Amino acid sequence: MNKSDSISELTKALVKVQSQLGGARLDSSNPFFKSKYASLSAVWDACRKLLADNELAVIQTTSAGNDNNLIIDTTLSHSSGEWITGELPMILPKNDPQGIGSAITYGRRYGLSAIIGICPEDDDAESAMERSINEKKPDSKSKDTVEKNVEAAKEDTNSVDRTASGEPHVTLMKNLEIIGWKANNYRPASVYIQKSYGVGGETFADTLEVLSKEQYAEFSDKVQDMVNKKVKK
Q1: At what angle do helices 97-116 and 40-53 cross, to 10 degrees?
Q2: Taking the model in full, what pTM does it have?
Q3: What is the pLDDT of residues 6-33, one digit of tens each?
Q4: Are 44 and 121 in contact (CB under 8 A)?
Q5: Run of H or E including 175
Q6: Tell me, what's the pLDDT at 70?
Q7: How many CA atoms lie within 13 A of 23 on its CB side?
Q8: CA 94, CA 61: separation in Å to the nearest integer?
Q9: Of the candidates 55, 88, 58, 61, which has an alpha carbon nearest to the alpha carbon of residue 76?
Q10: Residue-wise over 205-228: b if at least 16 C-beta within 10 A, else e?
């Protein structure tokens, strides 16, 4: 973070903003978890008037970083001339206009939320993720138990919405549980995605959100292959 020599007036103004600041409205849907999240527009709606009333402005710019990175710079500026700024490097999920646009929107949303202190009205991504999985856990690590879980996952394909990749999200989540990637809020899966595709988020739901349709389909196929190999052992 960089800042002006003094931020006393800016801090006083931001204290007033945060004393009245509400949560950002959950106005968008995450098809992977059948849950909602606050879009960039909703985050702006939560703070725009309060910022203006207290003579604060937010400026967001972009620049090219190294190794396929995009930098989102977010600056909070006060009418006194005081300012603070921070940068958020975003690894492009796909180096085309769609991938760049998605990274910019994602980075601006988190940059704005962080510098103002905005939270969603109800961030239930993790609980929604849990609800999407069959709550019945395998009672052992035996081959029979694994095979039963695989068959149950296949049966669910006709009862859930399908993702753009053609594979139901619920099947992916069950497969992650079968191969042991559900541990620590799906951290093994998040680490694999970050290493393979160079993208990630604060939660596993966020991580899946920034995957392109092609990357999601490829990841689902790789997980299914791991399940098949586990069953054959």
Answers
A1: 40
A2: 0.53
A3: 999 999 999 999 999 988 888 776 665 5
A4: no
A5: helix 169-178
A6: 87
A7: 10
A8: 20
A9: 58
A10: bbbbbbbbeebbbebbeebbebbe
